[in-house]
């Protein structure tokens, strides 16, 4: 059985505002293999929740660009 891999490349998440686009997550890259974990730390409003919501395609009111692949299959290209 093949180990699972989560690969994130050039991930960008942004929201629209009256003052223009807000880049909540910009150019995030990482890879996790089965059995590995990652910790995300930062100040309030620095994009931690937006990153997590982007990974599971639950970002409301924003757009996601880049690549999120689980075992080589694009999560962003899957139907809802």
Give an overview in words:
The protein has 80 residues and is mainly β. The chain has one helix at 48-55; strands at 5-17, 20-33, 62-70, 73-74. It has 1 helix and 4 strands; from the N terminus they run ββαββ. A 4-stranded antiparallel β-sheet has the order 2-1-3-4. A hairpin with a 2-residue loop joins strand 1 and strand 2 (20-33). It is globular, with a radius of gyration of 13 Å.
Attribute tags:
mainly beta, four-stranded antiparallel β-sheet, globular, 1 helix, 4 strands, 80 residues
Name the helix and strand elements from N-terminus to C-terminus, one letter apiece: EEHEE
Question: Helix content range of the residues, please?
Answer: 10-25%
Spatial gap, N to C terminus: 27 Å
Report low-confidence residues grouped into runs of 5 or more: none
Approximately what portion of the residues adopt beta-strand conformation? Answer: over 45%
Largest sheet: 4 strands, antiparallel
* Beta strand count: 4
Neighbour order of strands in the largest sheet = 2-1-3-4
Which value, in Å, is the CA radius of gyration? Answer: 13 Å
Structural class: mainly beta
The pLDDT mean sits at 93
Number of domains: 1
* Number of continuous helical runs: 1
Overall outline = globular
